[in-house]
Fold this sequence. Notes:
This protein is of the alpha/beta class. The chain has a domain at 3-82 and 148-230: 3-Layer(aba) Sandwich (Rossmann fold). It contains nine helices and nine strands. It has helices at 41-48, 68-71, 88-98, 103-116, 132-144, 162-179, 190-196, 214-219, 224-230, and strands at residues 3-12, 15-25, 30-34, 56-61, 74-77, 150-154, 182-186, 199-204, 207-213. The strands form two sheets. A six-stranded mixed β-sheet has the order 5-6-7-3-8-9, sandwiched between helices. Strands 2-1-4 form a three-stranded antiparallel β-sheet, with helices on one face. Helix 3 (88-98) packs across helix 4, helix 3 (88-98) packs parallel to helix 5 and helix 5 (132-144) packs parallel to helix 6. The longest helix has 18 residues, at 162-179. The protein is globular.
Amino acid sequence: MDLRIKALKKHYESKSVLDINQLHISKGTFLGIIGPNGAGKSTLVKILSNVEDATSGEILYNGGGFSNELSKDMTLVFQKPYLLRTTVYNNIAYPLQLRKLDQAEIDNRVISMMKTMEIMELKDQKAWTLSGGEAQKVALARALIFRPSLLILDEFTANIDPSSMVLLENTIKQFHEGYRPTIIMVTHNIQQAKRLCSHVAFMINGKIVEYGEMNEVIFNSQNTDTQKFISGEILI
């Protein structure tokens, strides 16, 4: 999915939390959004996924506005997963059931996805009994199962163990290589951005101050704040 942002602003009462003049995220990009706490990263992706409204500005999706039909081709995975109060299988199958796929096709896709995510033994387990890492695997499986053309990830590996993070990263990487969706990922993990992203945007004080190919931004930044953040300095 191709996205274009124009004069996007978000205010909470009198406070400005987002002010992006323009940004073009071309189809098939894997974008990592980095920056300090309070930079506006989560606000931006919530607006892009239509979870939150902008105060002003325009977002074009494939050249047009947001629509119910468009929403069927995109999804957002939060840092803390929101799962249905049912089994793991039913959680993962739900997007395919909404799209009225044949039951045999649903079974094939769900079983294949659970094997990929190494959660077959959790098939009939209730979602509320899962550990944090298990729940995040289920949330990501549910997001990928219908093969969206826009996948938005908000700190999706922040609270899980290293082995689960490796599995989730590999699954995301394979999904991107196989289907070439547009992926937008908020992360505090610079190494994760290096491993996964084709492009990186650095945000501070609600603005995107640097955007480009991953190697350019991470290894050859032209912005002082970006350089400080990547080197581990605390930005105030």
